[in-house]
Design a protein that fits this description.
By secondary structure, this protein is of the alpha+beta class. The chain contains two helices and four strands.
Length: 85
């Protein structure tokens, strides 16, 4: 089995969410994160774009998405792209 690169978008539930704390919570929940970028959405709200490399096992990406959605301060985490590494 190989690895895949997963790109996710994480939307905080409000502009008041501390993004640095959210980034740390994301890294603790998903240690395979390679990169996190902030992307402005509008009206002071920013999303986080995450790149993580995970095993190419069945259902792994869905489990990651569910796990990130459980973090306090996350309104929605969604997979944008999955590609082979």
């Amino acid at each position: 089995m190989g690895s895949v690169a997963v790109i996710l978008r994480v939307m905080p539930d409000s502009p008041e969410v501390n993004l640095e704390e959210l980034k740390e919570a994301l890294k603790q929940k998903l240690p395979t994160i390679q990169e996190i970028k902030e992307e402005p959405i509008g009206f002071g709200l920013k999303s986080l774009k995450i790149l993580a490399v995970v095993d190419d096992a069945g259902g792994e990406t869905d489990a990651i998405e569910r796990s990130l959605n459980e973090i306090a301060g996350v309104e929605r985490a969604e997979i944008i792209e999955v590609t082979l590494t």
